[in-house]
Amino acid sequence: MPSYLVETYLARGHAGEQAARERRARSAADELTRVSFDRSIHVPEDELCFFVFDAPSSRDVLLAAERAELGPIRIVEAVSSPTPKEDS
Q1: Beta bridge partners of 51
Q2: 11, 17, 28, 87: which could join 68 in a potential S-S bond, CB 3.0 to 4.6 Å?
């Protein structure tokens, strides 16, 4: 299933809001059977916060972001590289 980044604004002085937004994102994803919330990433220097969702489409993610009141700036598909296996 594709992953999507939801880019949002989060001021440096409001970093404590990240946990509340994560709870809302997780709750919204749980309500939507086709969406799962993975994690968030806060970049204080740029005053941005990214939320990572797995879903069949960006429309599904937009719905979750709106329900979570994340105030999405944009939503883009994200492709992760495979995790390297450790040598045994």
Answers
A1: 6, 40
A2: 28
